Amino acid sequence: MNILKYKSTKLVIASVLLAGFTTASFAAERVYTWKLATTWGPTLSPFIDAPHQMAKMVEEMSDGRLVIRIDASNKHKAALGVFDMVKGGQYDMAHSASYYWKGKDINTLPFTTMPFGMTTPEQYAWFYEGGGMELMQKAYAPHKILSFPGGNTGNQMGGWFRKEINSLEDLKGLKMRIPGFAGEVMAKLGVAVTNIPSGELYTSLERGVLDALEWVGPGMDVNMGFHKVAPFYYTGWHEPATELQYLVNERKFDRLPKDLQVILKTAMKLSAYDMYIKNYAMSAEALSEMDTKYPNIKVMTFPKPVMDAMKKANSELIAEITKENPLLKEVIDSQTAFQKKARAWTIMSDYNYLKDNLQ
Fold first, then answer.
1. Of 1, 201, 301, 328, which has fewest CB within 10 angstroms of its CB?
2. How many CA atoms lie within 13 A of 141 on its CB side?
């Protein structure tokens, strides 16, 4: 072989190897910086804690290659506008709740919760083992958005009311903040329903803009001070397993290296479960102190005729909306079938245990 040709070949090979090494090193060291918008204010624990914990885990697990900056609602000024901001690319991610988007796309409604629906363990089983995740991505696909579970509150309380509810007549004309499908049910029963961001709830109740509102449960509600204005605190029916969500811009997600995609999904899943644990503990603690610290709170249950009317309205409304929306029908049919299957085990395990062991 010609010595010059041999040296030239070695030089080319060395250059290729060096270029490959440099490219691989650059890819490994590249830092992706994302922005996440929340529907929540900066102090609304534990909702706001979930995305912060998720971002911390992502940065640590990726060795700093994926950094997520979080803007609470007080910064971006659009608590209920985060869907559009992720869809439009102004933000890469958001933390919110799927039922807020029912006016944009009715198919997104059931992925938070449905009245008289699944409990939290049942719903998580549906998401991860019953086809729920696949249906959720199908619903969000037209918007080029991915949606992932973002933390559950468990069974929510039925709301704070200025006056006691003794009959259906007491609901007529009542001004109430209640989102999701429960708002449709209450509207059918004559309630004037509205949805107001969390930061405006107490002021709206205090000033009489609202006569009643539902928020979450004792752990979050008592800190908001609702009991100072509306002392009648009703048990739940409308949100038995309220799952928050992470919204992710699909195009931005697809551009991440595969390992960062896995890290992001893992951190979202873990932070969601941690939020559920924290919220449960907060409510248990708040309830244990309620009698002594807040004796004016009157815990109530809705009268049976009111509950029966809610169930009837719920069934009628579901029949109406699913008739017009095939994908929504597919989702709700899937939830209903899984709930029936899971509820048999819930009754055998949790219900019978509690029934037989309550003191």
1. 1
2. 8
> Token pair 């468990």 is at which residue?
154
Residues 282, 289 contacting (CB under 8 angstroms) = no
Query: With 80 as the cut, is the pLDDT of residue 223 above it?
Result: yes
pLDDT at residue 199 in the model: 87
Q: How far is Cα 93 from Cα 104, in angstroms, rounded to an integer?
A: 18
Using left for φ > 0, alpha for ψ between -120 and 50, and beta otherwise, residue 211 falls in alpha
Position 359 confidence tier, pLDDT thresholds 50, 70, 90 = low
Residue 5 has pLDDT above 80, yes or no: no
Separation of alpha carbons 336 and 357, rounded Å = 29
Q: What is the pLDDT of residues 121-138, one digit of tens each?
A: 999 999 999 999 999 999
CA distance 131 to 129: 6
* Spatial distance between the Cα atoms of 226 and 136, rounded to a whole number of angstroms: 34
Query: Does the pLDDT of residue 64 top 80, yes or no?
Result: yes
Rounded Cα gap, residues 111 and 243, in angstroms: 7
